[in-house]
Q: What sequence folds into this?
């Protein structure tokens, strides 16, 4: 019996020693050099450097995105311009149907190797999923049909200041650029690029304002119609008439483009004409240019008609595009 009690006591003592050792191990503190890493799901208010994320406010609320974006899909032309302006190359971009389903021509050389993922109106969700992007960037019209699906693939940021009432603010197009720059912590670089463009605009406007005659008409030739663009309502219009200082020719509306009959052409009295020609409008253009009504316009007689296409409608939204418009105008105005 004594031997049995002695054995039980020894087993009990061993058990106490084991429990004590476990308790001491659990209570040991971590070395100071091994602080726990913050979770990527922590609120971004603690700072991108601490959490690995940042929060971007957009038209659908807030999106929590990685502080360092590796891959981004962009489904709007002007946002591609914005990304390239700050030195970032997208992994996937939308196609532009009017250009044969390829890149926008004025950005094509900077987008070589970038995958196309359908149009903005009909994005290829499978192709976007396979790219496994960190962020998707779209504008408000695309969001009407695709936001919920895209947001399941990756955090989707919806911008779209182009559809807001901007009044007399000709810098409204920069707001989306600055939001995109914020995503990459490159706001200062974006502001620097905007300032460089502003300087270029001021220099060009000085030459234009010094002209004795500077009435400009911005016309669009469509398949069966001639239209005249307004003074406002689009950043390209604001660039021409407000930033650069061209005077609107007669019949130029204030806010929305209007149809213009051939009989009304002589009333334009334009010293300069920007002629945007749709791809299916060559027959209409040939007939118009053959008419005496067209030939009597001062701009036509003075050789100051600059033919372009709808590139200008895209270019007006970004630093790269606006800079190219100014270069075209300065070259066009050379005697």
A:
């Amino acid at each position: 019996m004594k031997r049995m009690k002695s054995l039980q006591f020894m087993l009990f003592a061993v058990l106490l020693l084991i429990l004590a050792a476990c308790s001491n191990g659990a209570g040991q503190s971590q070395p100071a050099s091994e602080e726990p890493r913050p979770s990527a799901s922590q609120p971004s208010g603690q700072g991108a450097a601490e959490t690995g994320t940042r929060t971007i406010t957009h038209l659908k609320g807030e999106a929590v995105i990685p502080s360092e974006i590796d891959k981004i899909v962009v489904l709007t032309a002007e946002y591609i311009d914005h990304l390239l302006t700050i030195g970032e190359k997208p992994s996937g971009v939308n196609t532009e149907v009017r250009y044969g389903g390829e890149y926008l021509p004025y950005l094509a050389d900077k987008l070589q190797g970038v995958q196309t993922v359908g149009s903005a109106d009909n994005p290829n969700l499978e192709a976007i999923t396979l790219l496994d992007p960190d962020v998707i960037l779209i504008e408000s019209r695309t969001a009407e049909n695709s936001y919920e699906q895209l947001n399941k693939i990756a955090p989707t940021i919806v911008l779209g200041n182009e559809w807001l009432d901007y009044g007399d603010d000709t810098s409204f197009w920069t707001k989306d650029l600055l939001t995109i720059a914020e995503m990459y912590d490159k706001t200062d670089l974006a502001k620097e690029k905007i300032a460089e463009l502003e300087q270029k605009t001021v220099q060009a406007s000085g030459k234009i304002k010094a002209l004795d005659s500077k009435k400009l008409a911005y016309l669009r030739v469509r398949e069966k119609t001639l239209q005249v663009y307004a003074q406002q309502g689009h950043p390209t219009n604001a660039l021409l008439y407000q930033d650069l200082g061209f005077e609107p020719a007669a019949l130029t509306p204030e806010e929305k483009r209007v149809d213009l009959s051939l009989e009304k052409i002589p009333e334009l009295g334009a010293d300069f004409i920007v002629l945007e020609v749709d791809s299916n409008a060559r027959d209409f253009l040939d007939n118009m240019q053959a008419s005496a009504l067209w030939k009597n316009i001062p701009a036509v007689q003075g050789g100051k008609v600059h033919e372009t296409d709808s590139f200008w409608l895209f270019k007006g939204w970004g630093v790269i595009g606006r800079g190219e418009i100014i270069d075209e105008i300065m070259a066009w105005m050379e005697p």
About this structure: The chain has two domains: 48-185, 208-333. The domain at 208-333 is CATH 3.40.50.1980 (Rossmann fold).
